[in-house]
């Protein structure tokens, strides 16, 4: 078992799914559910003769932060890019469902239940979405996750943490967008269409996927923070992510509703103001939008040290 | 199976085939009107009557091109389209907010879309929010008691199907004789990306529906409720299915519908049998530790 204390200062970017799951909650509080000792593996990968993982590339379980029960879902990018198949998808869906059911049980049982005693869900994304080896089952699982996210509304806050190598793309880009609050590090990436696919669809002149600075300008944590798509930007350590989650965990669910980017007619209207800005600006690069947000040194924003970025950056509002 | 003329790119024709004659009023849903013809032209939204009952219609226009966002053509759902569709759903919820369950209008999603806008501007501004907003709106309407039925007439591809279709209570599809395409990616592309010979994947497709493309495989996974082999069958099937869904909702059987209900259907039809086992295992393991995570009193 990994030592919790040693995990805290470690790079979140480099941390495995299990280390993230253990490190994001209080020391010694994590219980894995449907873990590797259960050896539930993908029957579809087996049919293809491919290597399987005893956790199907996703760690699910429950821990605690202070008085808050924290259900954790953590995707492992090293196993087929963190892709979502039938088993892993079902683990994800059922973790959120279990949190909702647990919430309902606690509310029924304890009339004096406080906000900080109510469960939350934390999803550590590292995935490009559907696992092509079992694509249809993976796609259907995505729809189930979205359904559970809506069912969790007003009961169980869902917090996305994004700071791992693969980022959060494809159908899981929708899922991340649909959570209540998003915490990213500057190394986190979030979007729908991954850089390679944009290049393939639009041509290298439009988007050069090998240009890492371009990729980070378009989908990286600093950009998403400026756009308001990430609510919080933190340092790249397990501890920094845990502390941000810990700050949010005891809040009443209404506070989480206020953090959402989408999920109501009013929020859709606000997003449409951004879309109108996109149509008006036709930006060639994210830097154009950063300048529009009022950042004088827009072109240099990606290069300034983290602390300076946080203290000087102006975020877009419409 | 005799091939029929494809319905691909013919979302507007499908609306006419389905709703009561001359009843479709485009760009009006409840109190909301969509007056700007340049706003989200790839999305067709409006209100019709179906068997005399007020119904919201949401479809894609395969012939529209969005001048402001040129990745939107051929039925692609772009940023404006996704939000426009979401607005149509919210307007449906608002219009019937005070009505009893049985009087809440149904929503019919006519599905023929090849994808979501894949562009740089889309990524800069967050295309993922637009489609997610639409999915959340649909899930909210479904959970608030509106019957939502998707009717796949052409292409139901990957993320675009997630966005426009897979949040429905129930999904109907024209059968393979109409060239209906339901998949994440064609097997040829899957073969290239996961580096497996096409023959291997084709062979596996016959044994396991999770790899393959087409409405029949989705049927066995529970992803499609019923197949329809004739365009004339769409209207009566939708009328019947709406009534069944409304009845199930009135009886409190919400769990037999929507994405969660499709899970059970997939197990029943033998296409997704691993899913229920892992869920059952997790539930058992959680029950054993749940008390540790309840508040100390």
UniProtKB/TrEMBL annotation, chain A:
| Keyword check for Amino-acid biosynthesis | no
Keywords, in A-Z order: Transferase
Q: Which biological process, per GO, is one annotated for this protein?
A: fatty acid biosynthetic process
Q: Which GO terms describe its molecular function?
A: acetyl-CoA carboxylase activity; carboxy-lyase activity; transferase activity
Q: What InterPro entries does the annotation carry?
A: AcCoA_carboxyl_beta, ClpP/crotonase-like_dom_sf, COA_CT_N, Malonate_beta
Give the highest taxon in the source lineage.
Bacteria
Domain annotation CoA carboxyltransferase N-terminal: ranges: 1-257
Supply the NCBIfam families for this chain: malonate_beta, PRK07189.1
PANTHER family from the entry? ACETYL-COENZYME A CARBOXYLASE CARBOXYL TRANSFERASE SUBUNIT BETA, CHLOROPLASTIC, MALONATE DECARBOXYLASE BETA SUBUNIT
Protein's name according to its UniProt entry: Malonate decarboxylase beta subunit
Please name the source species: Rhodobacter aestuarii
From TrEMBL, chain B:
One Pfam family per UniProt: MdcE
Q: Domain of life here?
A: Bacteria
Which GO terms label this protein's molecular function in UniProt? ligase activity
Q: Which InterPro entries does the record match to this protein? A: ClpP/crotonase-like_dom_sf, COA_CT_C, Malonate_gamma
Name the GO terms of the biological process aspect: carbohydrate metabolic process
Q: Which residues form the CoA carboxyltransferase C-terminal domain?
A: 1-284
Kindly give the NCBIfam families that the UniProt entry links to this protein. Answer: malonate_gamma
**Record-given protein name:** Malonate decarboxylase gamma subunit
Species annotation: Rhodobacter aestuarii
């Amino acid at each position: 078992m990994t030592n919790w204390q040693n995990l805290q200062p470690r790079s979140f970017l480099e941390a495995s799914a299990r280390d993230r799951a253990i490190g994001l909650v209080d020391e010694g509080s994590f219980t894995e559910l449907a873990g590797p000792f259960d050896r539930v593996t993908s029957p579809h990968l087996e049919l293809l003769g491919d290597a399987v993982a005893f956790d199907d590339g996703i760690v699910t379980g429950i821990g605690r932060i202070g008085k808050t029960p924290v259900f954790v879902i953590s995707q492992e990018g090293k196993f087929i890019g963190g892709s979502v198949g039938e088993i892993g998808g079902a683990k994800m869906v059922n973790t959120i469902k279990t949190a909702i059911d647990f919430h309902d049980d606690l509310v029924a049982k304890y009339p004096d239940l406080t906000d900080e005693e109510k469960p939350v869900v934390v999803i550590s994304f590292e995935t490009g979405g559907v696992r092509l080896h079992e694509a249809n089952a993976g796609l259907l699982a995505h729809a189930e996750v979205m359904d559970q996210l809506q069912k969790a509304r007003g009961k169980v806050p869902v917090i996305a943490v994004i700071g791992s190598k693969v980022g959060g793309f494809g159908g899981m880009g929708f899922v991340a967008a649909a959570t209540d609050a998003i915490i990213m590090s500057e190394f986190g990436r979030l979007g729908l269409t991954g850089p390679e696919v944009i290049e393939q669809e639009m041509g290298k002149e439009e988007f050069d996927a090998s240009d890492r600075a371009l990729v980070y300008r378009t989908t990286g944590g600093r950009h998403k923070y400026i756009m308001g798509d990430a609510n919080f930007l933190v340092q790249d350590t397990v501890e920094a992510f845990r502390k941000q989650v810990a700050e949010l965990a005891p809040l009443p669910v209404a506070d989480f509703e206020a953090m959402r980017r989408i999920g109501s007619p009013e929020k859709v209207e606000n997003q449409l103001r951004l879309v109108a800005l996109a149509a008006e600006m036709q930006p060639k690069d994210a830097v154009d939008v950063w300048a529009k947000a009022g950042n004088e040194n827009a072109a240099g924003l990606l290069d300034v040290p983290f602390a300076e970025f946080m203290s000087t950056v102006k975020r877009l509002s419409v | 199976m005799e091939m029929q003329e494809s319905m691909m790119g013919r979302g507007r024709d499908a609306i006419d085939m389905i709703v009561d004659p001359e009843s479709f009023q485009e760009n009006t849903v409840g109190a909301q009107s969509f007056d700007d013809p340049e706003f989200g032209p790839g999305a067709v939204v409006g209100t019709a009557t179906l068997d005399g009952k007020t119904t919201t219609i949401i479809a894609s226009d395969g012939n529209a091109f969005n001048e402001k966002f040129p990745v939107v053509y051929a039925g692609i759902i772009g940023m404006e389209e996704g939000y426009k569709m979401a607005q149509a759903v919210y307007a449906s919820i608002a219009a019937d907010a005070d009505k009893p369950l049985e009087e809440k209008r149904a929503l019919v999603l006519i599905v023929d879309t090849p994808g979501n806008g894949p562009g740089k501007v889309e990524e800069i501004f967050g295309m993922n929010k637009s489609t997610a907003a639409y999915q959340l709106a649909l899930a909210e309407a479904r959970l608030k008691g509106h019957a939502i039925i998707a009717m796949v007439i052409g292409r139901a591809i990957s993320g675009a199907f997630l966005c426009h279709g897979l949040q429905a209570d129930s999904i109907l599809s024209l059968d393979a004789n109409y060239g209906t395409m339901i998949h994440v990616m064609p097997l040829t592309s899957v073969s290239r990306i996961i580096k497996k010979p096409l023959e291997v994947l084709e062979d596996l497709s016959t044994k396991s529906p999770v790899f393959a493309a087409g409405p029949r495989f989705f049927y066995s996974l529970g992803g499609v409720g019923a197949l329809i082999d004739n365009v004339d069958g769409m209207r009566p099937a939708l009328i019947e299915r709406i009534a069944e869904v409304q009845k199930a909702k009135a009886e409190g059987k919400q769990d037999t519908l929507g994405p969660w209900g499709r899970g059970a259907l997939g197990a029943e039809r033998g296409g997704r049998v691993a899913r229920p086992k892992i869920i059952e295992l997790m539930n058992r393991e959680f029950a054993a530790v749940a008390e540790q995570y309840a508040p100390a009193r």
